[in-house]
């Protein structure tokens, strides 16, 4: 999802704590989804679960209505990279699904995508999930004061390609706070030591999308759903974090 503002806005301790409250709800929803998602359920049922969970805590599912997006969550199955529409599609044993959600709380956002195995999955799918999750944390480890933004993407790309997988180029991480999408842009590939210096109080997402085949993508006619160009599998993991004197502080974990 595109949009945002031009300047990098650092956040106060108070703002970060509000984002953490939102992040705990998002993380709690993801934890609950791990038990909820089963073969035979529709992705629309997952969307309803997400909306009810977020609103139960008095927060808004911020993706709903964002640039006309009609749902509380994105549900991206198998070869869908991101922004998959919830539908009457019934999950099958062996599917893999990414659920992406954003909670808005007291004017501030927290954003996280997590991926789930549906029933018993293939070794290829399991490897894809393990590598992508590890890549997220390898990227997070680079989110320290005085590094540059591209150090994150360089670390992710180096690891992922070393595992024989590819990193999506067109869809990236982003600053987050009062807007869902702010500066800086956080690429998951590229050379090190480029882009803005990482400073205390910056808040942004890291959200590598990793494919089994080509990194190239294709956009569906709905204007949102993005698939792998070759029909290969894709998975995504995403956290929102804040940069502190003590390193990256993940705001979307329990």
From TrEMBL:
UniProt entry tagged with the keyword ATP-binding: no
Catalytic activity, reaction form: Release of N-terminal amino acids, preferentially methionine, from peptides and arylamides
Gene Ontology MF annotations: initiator methionyl aminopeptidase activity; metal ion binding; metalloaminopeptidase activity
Pfam families in alphabetical order: Peptidase_M24 (PF00557)
Positions that bind a divalent metal cation 1: 100, 111, 238
Gene field: map
InterPro entries: Creatinase/aminopeptidase-like (IPR036005), Pept_M24 (IPR000994), Pept_M24_MAP (IPR001714), Pept_M24A_MAP1 (IPR002467)
HAMAP family per record: MetAP_1
Chain's role: Removes the N-terminal methionine from nascent proteins. The N-terminal methionine is often cleaved when the second residue in the primary sequence is small and uncharged (Met-Ala-, Cys, Gly, Pro, Ser, Thr, or Val). Requires deformylation of the N(alpha)-formylated initiator methionine before it can be hydrolyzed.
Assembly and binders: Monomer.
Residues that coordinate or bind a divalent metal cation 2: 111, 174, 207, 238
Name of the featured protein: Methionine aminopeptidase
E.C. numbers: 3.4.11.18
One annotated GO biological process: proteolysis
Note on how the cofactor is bound: Binds 2 divalent metal cations per subunit. Has a high-affinity and a low affinity metal-binding site. The true nature of the physiological cofactor is under debate. The enzyme is active with cobalt, zinc, manganese or divalent iron ions. Most likely, methionine aminopeptidases function as mononuclear Fe(2+)-metalloproteases under physiological conditions, and the catalytically relevant metal-binding site has been assigned to the histidine-containing high-affinity site.
Binding site for substrate: 83, 181
Family: Belongs to the peptidase M24A family. Methionine aminopeptidase type 1 subfamily.
Domain spans labelled Peptidase M24: 17-245
Top-rank EC class of the record's enzyme: hydrolase
Organism of this sequence: Alicyclobacillus ferrooxydans
Keyword Amino-acid biosynthesis: no
Cofactor(s), by name: Co(2+); Zn(2+); Mn(2+); Fe(2+)
GO CC annotation terms, alphabetical: cytosol
Superkingdom per UniProt: Bacteria
Alphabetized UniProt keyword annotations: Aminopeptidase, Hydrolase, Metal-binding, Protease
């Amino acid at each position: 999802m595109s949009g945002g503002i031009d300047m990098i806005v650092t956040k106060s301790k108070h703002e970060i704590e509000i984002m953490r409250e939102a992040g705990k709800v998002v993380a709690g929803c993801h934890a609950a989804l791990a038990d909820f998602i089963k073969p035979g359920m529709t992705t629309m049922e997952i969307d309803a679960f997400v909306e009810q969970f977020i609103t139960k805590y008095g927060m808004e599912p911020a993706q709903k209505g964002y640039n006309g997006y009609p749902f509380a969550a994105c549900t991206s199955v198998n070869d869908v990279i991101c922004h998959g529409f919830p539908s009457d599609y019934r999950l099958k044993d062996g599917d893999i699904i990414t659920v992406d959600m954003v909670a808005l709380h007291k004017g501030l956002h927290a954003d996280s995508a997590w991926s789930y195995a549906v029933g018993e999955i293939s070794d290829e799918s399991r490897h894809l999930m393990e590598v992508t999750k590890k890549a997220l944390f390898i990227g997070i480890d680079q989110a320290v004061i005085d590094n540059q933004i591209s150090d994150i993407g360089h670390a992710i790309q180096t690891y992922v390609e070393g595992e024989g997988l590819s990193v999506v180029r067109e869809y990236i991480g982003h600053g987050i706070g009062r807007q869902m999408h702010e500066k800086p842009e956080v690429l998951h590939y590229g050379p090190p030591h480029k882009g803005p210096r990482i400073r205390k109080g910056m808040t942004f997402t890291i959200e590598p999308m990793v494919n089994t085949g080509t990194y190239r993508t294709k956009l569906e006619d709905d204007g949102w759903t993005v698939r792998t160009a070759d029909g290969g599998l894709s998975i995504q993991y995403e956290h929102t974090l804040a940069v502190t004197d003590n390193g990256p502080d993940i705001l979307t974990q329990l």
